[in-house]
Amino acid sequence: xxxxxxxxxVTLRYxxxxxxxxxxxxxxxxxxxxxxxxxxxxxxxxxxxLLKAVGGYLNPSEGKIRIKGREVAEPGADRMMVFQEFxxxxxxxxxxENVMFPLLVARKLPRxxxxxxxxxxxxxxxxxxxxxxxxxxxxxxxxxxxxxxxGMAMEPDILLMDEPxxxxxxxxxxxxxxxxxxxxxxxxxxVLFVTHSIAExxxxxxxxxxxxxxxxxxxxxxxxxxxxxxxxGSAGQLEKHIHELLFAEHAAH
Length: 253
Ligand SMILES: Nc1ncnc2c1ncn2[C@@H]1O[C@H](COP(=O)(O)OP(=O)(O)OP(=O)(O)O)[C@@H](O)[C@H]1O
Fold this sequence. Notes:
- This is ABC transporter ATP-binding protein.
- Residues 5-238 form the ABC transporter domain.
- Belongs to the ABC transporter superfamily.
- The protein contains seven helices and ten strands.
- Helix 2 crosses helix 3, helix 2 packs parallel to helix 4 (140-153) and helix 3 crosses helix 4.
- 36% of the residues lie in helices and 24% in strands.
- The relative contact order is 0.18.
- Strand 9 and strand 10 (218-222) form a beta hairpin.
- The chain is globular and about 55 Å long.
- The structure holds adenosine-5'-triphosphate.
- Residues 14, 16, 21, 23, 41, 43-49, 196, 214 line the site of adenosine-5'-triphosphate.
């Protein structure tokens, strides 16, 4: 089976007027259909940069990124992004209009079809009661759920999520994580999820890629995350193991 997303030897650099910043160095991984694939690493290791490159917003200086065998060259409706920031919704549009917007503009669906699809995904994130609300009247968690509904309604090949729950309080964060997993049970979408929290990576992912600090290089890949259980202590053991893998070099000094 060929991978849905194939990231092969990808080096990503930013050119600023004074310096050339290498964000990731020859990173390789692949994501299969229905994977919940997590990029995990400390701040500054290039997770967001990798996600942006998969999104088509940044071209690799080295290596290739392919979706279903096609090289990624620009942004496309086959890859939808959900960001950490709460201000990613259009403030002058209601919840329903926000979710409909890319369906009308990018997918060019007829209005009725776009509305039906938007309503169905808003229902999936339990926000039907807020259909006609404007973003400024919603809590942070509700805004993130709208952004998730908007991304999922496009039915992309892969949903790209950049720390979508990082700015939420702990309780809301847990609820949003549970909802995302519930949604995944229903639709088995493919997601590439960025986080710097080991616990969140274990909760969300079935596979986790561990990245070293700046510049980001692959440290290890953990592929059997689904086998751990939060109740028998195995999740705690995996968390400890991942912590050791991530910080092995620091411990040696
Ligand atoms: N627009 C930019 N111009 C120059 N350097 C940048 C730019 N964006 C990011 N960088 C640098 O690239 C490196 C990787 O940044 P990136 O945001 O991808 O890391 P990250 O792992 O997502 O971190 P965090 O968890 O803090 O968001 C960092 O050293 C950062 O300073």
